[in-house]
Design a protein that fits this description.
single chain; 113 residues; 3 helices
Length: 113
Amino acid sequence: MFLLASGLFLAGCATTKPTVVSGLPDPWWASPVKPANPGPVTPTVPTPALPAGVISRTAWAKGKPVPARMSQGRRITRITVHHDGMKPFTDTSYAAASSRLESIRRAHLRRKP
């Protein structure tokens, strides 16, 4: 009985008209033209401008920072004005100040961390 009902059902679905197969319509917009791959792009990060009167570290320090001796990941909450036990510094030239700071920096690097 099931086979007979299935056969009648399928026979009822059959049509005598030929089936028309067509493609989808073209899109209304043009396909974007993809440029050739130019290769990897290295983003440039602009150096932030320093406030007036601030001299960058690279201008007075001869050596590079040593990240292993820094406390990384901490938020800066205060600044220390450096003082030393050296003779008083009275020179006003940029070169003399740079030399003095470099000697302090080298002395700090000789200390054990």
